[in-house]
Every structure is written in C-alpha cells, then in structure tokens.
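Try this one yourself first.
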C-alpha cells in the first residue's frame, strides 16, 4: 500500500510541474493567474458532469447489444464514446464557462492555457480514481505520458486559433484530434484490442510517445509563444 501511495505521488509530479509552469510562467498578470486557479478548480469538479454524461452514453452503448455478440466493437464504442467523447465534451464545456465568466482580454495563448489547466484539474482527480486497484506500472505510465495535458493543449490551441481567425473549423480540428487520440489510447490498452495481434502491443507505446510530444510542445509554446504578438494580443 505504501509503495502504491509513493508511486501515485511520484506519478503526479510531472503534471503538477506543468500546471505551475503554465500558471506562473505562461500568464501575463495576477488577474489571469486567479482565472487559472478557477480553471483548475473547475477541472477538479468536472468529474461530476463527466460521470453523468458517461453514464448516459454507457446506457446507450449497452442498448446496442454488442457487449455479448461483438466484444471488440463494444469496447471500441465504450472507449471512444463513454470515456473519450464524454470527457472531452465536458472538459471543453467547463472551459468555456470559465472563459465566459471572466471579463478579461484573452489572447490565443491565454485560451490555450486555461483549457489545458481545466484538463489538468480533471486529470488529477482521474489519477486518484485510477490509483484504486491500479498497478505501479499503470500509475507510472499515466504520470509519464500526461495524456490529458496533450488533449487539453490540442483543444485549447485550436479553439484559440478559431477565435483568432474567426473560422470554427479550427476548433473542430483540435477537438476531433484530441478525441481520436484519447479514444485510441484507451482502446489500445483494452484486452480486446491487444488480443487481435501480438504486435499491437506497440500501439499504446506509440500513443504514449505522441502524448509526451504534445506535452513538450505545450511547454515550448507557453515559454516561447509569449514573445510572439499573434499569440499574446487580445482576441477580437
């Protein structure tokens, strides 16, 4: 039990470091830092509507009758709809609530950071739930890959771009990319997927590398993007 608790603490270090970096290095002033704090709390509480929406989608998926007749298709629907889609919808909806509730001249950078911080808040709560009955390797893998950081970055970056350009297609590109990456990551870890072929065991590792690359890209964007006017000027 002690080893599991220590592993959980260690696994949370990377995401906490990124949270502090975004809040302290990626924002312009104290007013925005307070909004980032609200975004983090919003992310923590997003677990409630996510459970509700996941419950509804789970009922619908089960009504399709694939659980017994086609376990692989059922698992695909479960991971892509019940898990990935429900979580991404709620996280973005909660992010928009944070943005709308504050009268602040948000920039492309600000939007990206706030959406990502909401995702980080949810990720921390999810990590605590995963710790119940989880193994040490699973906790460490989640801590290293930082999946929700990458998903939040994709949605936030492209949502900010859509506001910058006035073209909503950019948001949908980011959202769909985050959803597909999220769903495939969860699906690739399922027994049904891995049972298809022994070589498919490499797919989760590839997706973890992509998640890590997204997290690194986020850090670079937060540190270097703040020096570029197109990312820091207020959105019209």
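Now uncover the answer:
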């Amino acid at each position: 039990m002690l080893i599991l608790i220590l592993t959980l603490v260690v696994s949370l270090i990377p995401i906490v470091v990124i949270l502090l970096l975004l809040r302290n290095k990626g924002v312009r002033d104290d007013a925005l830092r307070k909004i980032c704090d609200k975004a983090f709390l919003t992310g923590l509480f997003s677990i409630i509507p996510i459970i509700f929406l996941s419950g509804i989608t789970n009922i619908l998926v089960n009504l399709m009758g694939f659980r017994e007749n086609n376990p692989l298709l059922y698992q695909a629907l479960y991971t892509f709809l019940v898990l990935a889609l429900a979580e991404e919808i709620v996280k973005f909806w909660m992010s928009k609530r944070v943005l709308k509730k504050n009268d602040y001249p948000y920039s492309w950078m600000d939007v990206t950071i706030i959406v990502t911080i909401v995702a980080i808040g949810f990720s921390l709560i999810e990590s605590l739930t995963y710790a119940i009955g989880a193994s040490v390797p699973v906790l460490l893998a989640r801590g290293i890959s930082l999946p929700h950081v990458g998903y939040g970055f994709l949605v936030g970056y492209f949502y900010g771009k859509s506001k910058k350009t006035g073209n909503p297609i950019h948001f949908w590109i980011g959202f769909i990319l985050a959803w597909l990456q999220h769903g495939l990551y969860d699906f690739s870890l399922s027994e049904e997927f891995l049972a298809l072929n022994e070589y498919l065991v490499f797919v989760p590792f590839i997706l973890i590398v992509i998640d890590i690359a997204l997290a690194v890209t986020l850090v670079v964007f937060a540190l270097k993007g703040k020096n570029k006017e197109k990312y820091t000027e207020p959105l019209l």
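Discussion: The chain is about 85% helix and 0% strand. The radius of gyration is 18 Å.
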